[in-house]
Design a protein that fits this description.
Elements: H1 6-9, E1 14-15, E2 21-25, E3 28-36, E4 43-46, E5 51-55, H2 61-70, H3 72-91, E6 101-104, E7 107-113, E8 120-123, E9 135-139, H4 147-177, E10 183-187, E11 194-196, E12 201-205, H5 213-225, H6 234-243, H7 247-256
Parallel strand pairs: 1-3, 3-5, 7-9, 10-12
Antiparallel strand pairs: 2-3, 4-5, 6-7, 8-9, 11-12
């Protein structure tokens, strides 16, 4: 008989930092933010801080409690998802030092401070053991380099690689789709992976370079498809599907994966 896990013995508590009400949903005690709002029905939002509930002034708290119980399954599922995402984000924080690893084109790269080299040099290694990263990025920095120096050197290298890869993929898919890219530039947007303008300008987030090539190809194709269909209609998705029949898989990876925190 398996031993119960810690979470089964002590279910995780969910407490919004501005919570002033609590409710028991299943075996979980949930502290939630509550406010009255000009709306027609009770609203539930599960964000990074926790559960927020808003209700019209004429709705009683008893009705709010009943609505919470009715939505308990959905609320708990979303709270667990947010908790797991928060844990993954915390685990993705990078300590910028010799030996740190980060994703590059879907693989793991180990940073090596090596004052013998100039700039940054990627060593593909020699195969190595299964599951052991074989890529090393040699940075022309001394062992005494600060975390800021290491981060800036790595980020600069990643952006150069992003421009090289994105330009090649834009050229490839522009020919396949029969469109013309007049200008490709890198973006550092916090919430967008890419954008396209009717004049043929395409912007791609340089942090896509962390993902494997199928994900990069999906974003490139998505933006280039906008040069034919400036919308998200069924015709647009047909354009994407014409060159990437299984694009849904890459779109899911783009949504679910957590990138390293480069700050």
């Amino acid at each position: 008989m398996p031993m119960p896990t810690a979470s089964a013995i002590n279910p995780p508590r969910f407490h919004h930092p501005r919570a002033h009400r609590q409710v028991t949903l299943g075996e979980h005690r949930v502290g939630y933010e509550f406010r009255r709002a000009r709306r027609r029905s009770i609203g539930f939002v599960v964000g990074t801080e926790g559960l927020s509930v808003s209700a019209p002034r004429w709705v009683s708290m008893n009705e709010v409690d009943q609505a919470l119980q009715a939505k308990a399954g959905w609320i708990l599922r979303k709270l667990h998802e947010q908790r797991e995402r928060s844990d993954r984000l915390q685990a993705a924080r990078i300590e910028w030092r010799d030996g740190t690893s980060l994703p590059f084109l879907g693989e793991t790269v180990i940073l090596v401070l090596d004052p013998r080299v100039t700039g940054a040099v990627l060593d593909p290694g020699g195969g190595g053991l299964p599951g052991v990263p074989s890529l090393t990025l040699h940075l022309g920095l001394p062992q005494s380099a600060s975390q800021d120096q290491i981060r800036e050197a790595v980020q600069s290298w990643l952006q150069r690689q992003a421009r090289r890869v994105f330009e090649a993929r834009c050229e490839h898919f522009a020919q396949a789709l029969g469109v013309r890219v007049r200008r490709m530039s890198l973006s550092s947007a916090a919430t967008r992976w890419g954008s396209a303008s009717a004049d043929g300008s395409v912007r791609l987030n340089w942090r896509l370079i962390h993902f494997a090539m199928p994900v990069i190809d999906y974003v490139v194709t998505h933006e280039l498809a906008h040069l034919r269909e400036m919308n998200h209609s069924s015709a647009f998705w047909d354009v994407v599907r014409s060159v990437l029949p299984d694009f849904e898989r890459s779109r899911g990876a783009l949504r679910d994966e957590v990138l390293p925190a480069l700050e």
